[in-house]
Design goal:
By secondary structure, this protein is mostly helical. The protein is 42% helix and 0% strand. It has helices at 63-76, 85-98, 130-143, 145-152, 166-180, 191-202, 206-224, 232-247. α3 packs across α5. The longest helix has 19 residues, at 206-224. It is globular, with a radius of gyration of 18 Å.
Length: 266
Amino acid sequence: MDDRGGSFVAVRRISQGLERGNTCHSTSAEVVAGSAAWLGRGLSCVCAQRRESDARPSFDITPAQEDCLQRLQNRIDIAYDSSIPEHQNALRALWNAAFPEEQLRGLISEQWKEMGWQGKDPSTDFRGGGFISLENLLFFARSFPKSFQDLLRKQEGDRSVWEYPFAVAGVNITFMLIQMLDLEAVKPRTMVGATFLKFLSENESAFDLLYCITFKLMDHQWLAMRASYMDFNTVMKATRRQLERELLLEDITRLEDLPSFSLLAR
């Protein structure tokens, strides 16, 4: 926290027992608590925790959809562990995709601040989003390299003096999507969640793709609102509202049909 009112957020992930179904990753969740370590000046997750007593309807899902949801939840429940070679390799791969011309000197290095991490050790920022937030960033870098680089280097639009930090914003987006889609529930409890599950059952990479769309949409909103650092939460709320509206549009049969998908460039 700094003198401009920086804030931190506690992230809880609540265990949900999911029954196995039949197609598309899987596990039981644990509680993960602690600071998501967003940078100061007000950059914190905009998603408030939902009370256990909140009563909402659930939607019936097919066995195949149930299995896809379980598999995605398994990914969500994996914490980033700097001692696991697979996680180390993914982090190196992210650096190489972001800065192919610059050799990384170590997994703990001041260089990471160039990507918008809070400090020299990115693992401390993954507590809010887990390993999937790293996978999301890597998927974005590989699938839409031009858009990834444009956002990383703030190359589009009339940028403000105080910009959002790219990498930490990316972790925030992962966490926001998990809450918006209610992915820790056994079954979808909102129409948005039910709609997304349909896309997920048809495309195993649907969450990663929606992440890319959301990141680009967030930056688009940032520019449209002429936002600066302290406006990040307001921008995230506007992004979430727009995304929910688009997911519920008629004639949307796949994520590529979303209006905001057109913002992405490979």
